[in-house]
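Tokens for chain A. Residues wanted.
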């Protein structure tokens, strides 16, 4: 149980604690189970997707007694939800290794911290400025120019907490419409395409990357992922290098997703990163020798990282809201591999499942 020497390999049979109980946690549990691991979920919400497949402790991240009990009942902790309060991650780490650790989490939770970290690591992002008031916003917009995007520094996802600023947008009072919280202003990037690279780093410092994938968004939500990405080999190499540099600089254990913009002139800018399995890696469940979820298990348990080779051309299509009502259609479609998350209610914009397709490589 607890008191593991920090770098000991945790063999099959060990228990992995997962912070967060959404679909990413659910798929992580399934991958862990396949390798003979047990999982326990820490998630405030009852009946969360991961609770259907693993032991679940429903408590808040401010419940110190629950955090301590959870930490004592597992051998290592990882996460599927990046907004775990840092104080909670630190508290857990007093008892059991938390991978990735609180420091990497702190960087990934805050867009300003993230961009500052990236620039120190020599990695390019869109032009940006921190914004803490309407006056800051006006000054930042003068500096960065239009079009631009105002984003809350924390807690954004699926395009939530963002406001686009076009050439004619009236920005009067715009800072308050995002809640009056710390923000960043980013120059709008006229990208050619969006890609992501998922990198894993093991206890011994070994790094393995899945190849870059191409991401197509609809209403700011990931719609499809195409593998391989439609980029030249030199761009793919550049993107993988960025992910490697980032994960090494963070001294990170686990899987890190790095979202990037590819520009027409061949530049690759980092948009944001996620310290957990990522929607753009769901194709790996059916399309790679090792899935992104198995890779998390391997990394945080101190096992050798798995082979990231792709087994064919792949496409992942998200099922958003009522799209999952068509489950019978997907079940009947040759080649379609259906994944549903067990969510009782399909609200608009909610990720309900996905479908993976794997085709033979083009001759
Ligand atoms: N600076 C930008 N320029 C152009 N498009 C952007 C910019 N920032 C975000 N976007 C678009 O919005 C999507 C969501 O923004 P992102 O920063 O990734 O937030 P999140 O995924 O946390 O909602 C991106 O994948 C991209 O399509
Ligand atoms: Mg994003």
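Reply:
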């Amino acid at each position: 149980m607890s008191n593991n020497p920090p770098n000991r390999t945790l063999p099959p049979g060990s228990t992995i604690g997962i912070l967060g109980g959404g679909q990413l946690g659910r798929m992580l549990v399934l991958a862990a189970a396949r390798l003979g691991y047990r999982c326990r979920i820490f998630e405030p919400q009852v009946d969360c997707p991961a609770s259907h497949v693993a032991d679940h402790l429903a408590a808040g991240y401010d419940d110190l007694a629950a955090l301590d009990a959870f930490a004592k009942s597992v051998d290592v902790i990882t996460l599927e939800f990046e907004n775990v309060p840092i104080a909670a991650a630190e508290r857990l780490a007093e008892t059991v290794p938390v991978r990735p650790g609180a420091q990497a989490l702190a960087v990934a939770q805050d867009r300003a911290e993230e961009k500052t970290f990236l620039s120190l690591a020599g990695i390019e992002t869109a032009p940006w400025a921190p914004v803490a008031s309407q006056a800051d916003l006006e000054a930042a917009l003068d500096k960065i120019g239009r079009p631009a995007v105002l984003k809350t520094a924390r807690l954004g996802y699926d395009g939530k907490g963002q406001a686009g600023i076009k050439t004619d947008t009236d920005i009067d009072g715009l800072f308050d419409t995002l809640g009056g919280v710390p923000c960043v202003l980013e120059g709008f990037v006229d990208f050619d395409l969006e890609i992501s690279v998922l990198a894993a780093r093991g206890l011994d410092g070994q790094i393995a990357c899945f190849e870059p994938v191409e991401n197509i968004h609809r209403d700011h939500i990931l719609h499809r992922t195409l593998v391989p990405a439609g980029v030249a080999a030199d761009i793919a190499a550049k993107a993988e290098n960025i992910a490697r540099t980032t994960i090494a600089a963070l001294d990170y254990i686990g899987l890190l997703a790095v979202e990037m913009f590819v520009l027409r002139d061949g530049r690759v800018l980092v948009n944001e990163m996620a310290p957990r399995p990522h929607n753009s890696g769901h194709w790996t469940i059916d399309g790679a020798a090792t899935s992104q979820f198995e890779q998390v298990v391997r990394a945080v348990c101190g096992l050798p990282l798995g082979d990231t080779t792709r087994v064919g051309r792949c496409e992942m299509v998200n099922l958003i809201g009522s799209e999952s009502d068509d489950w019978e259609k997907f079940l009947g479609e040759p080649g379609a591999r259906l994944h549903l998350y067990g969510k009782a209610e399909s609200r608009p914009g909610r990720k309900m499942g996905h479908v993976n397709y794997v085709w033979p490589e083009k001759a």
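The chain has a mean pLDDT of 96. The two ends are 51 Å apart (CA to CA).
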